[in-house]
Recover the amino acids of this structure.
């Protein structure tokens, strides 16, 4: 069976709109993108099946039965889309209550990695000519100008992290060893 051109165009539009909405920062739009992608996938799976009678032995001749596999795959895709929709709705609801909006914020670490990548990929740079950034100490690795340690740099007496939530590497390794016993 050859698929109908209308179905193919509708599947393409659903996928294009879904991907476009997935790239937005608003969780509501991401949710709509997931729903459109799910519907596009369902329609795509259904176009691959053969039309015919119900696939029940005894009611229809074997040669005239429709293929039950695409129907089973569509049911599975519906359940997966429903689960993703419920998860994204909960995420949006939680974000709305915590922040008053459902925008996804930039991650500080991702921004730092993108800035480092932009510096490395400048015009006319070659990786063989440039020294590794790992050899250069970072500003965060340098001690403060005053010789007094900050209260958030030091763990508490029992090895738990200080107010900033950082745990020194020795205390972290000791904590991991203690859990395995």
């Amino acid at each position: 069976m050859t698929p109908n051109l209308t179905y193919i165009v509708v599947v393409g539009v659903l996928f294009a709109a879904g991907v476009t909405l997935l790239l937005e920062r608003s969780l509501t739009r991401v949710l709509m993108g997931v729903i459109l992608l799910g519907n596009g996938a369902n329609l795509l799976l259904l176009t691959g099946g053969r039309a015919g009678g119900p696939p029940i032995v005894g009611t229809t001749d074997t040669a005239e039965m429709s293929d039950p596999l695409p129907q089973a795959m569509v049911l599975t895709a519906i359940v997966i889309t429903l689960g993703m929709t419920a998860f994204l709705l909960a995420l949006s609801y939680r974000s709305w209550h915590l922040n008053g909006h459902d925008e996804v914020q930039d991650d500080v670490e991702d921004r730092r990695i993108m800035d480092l990548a932009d510096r490395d990929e400048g015009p006319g740079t070659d990786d063989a000519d440039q020294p590794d950034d790992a050899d250069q100490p970072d500003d965060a690795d340098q001690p403060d100008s005053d010789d007094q340690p900050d209260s958030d740099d030091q763990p508490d007496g029992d090895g738990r992290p200080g107010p900033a939530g950082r745990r020194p590497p020795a205390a972290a390794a000791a904590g991991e060893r203690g859990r395995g016993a």
In short: Residues 68-99 form the longest helix (32 residues).
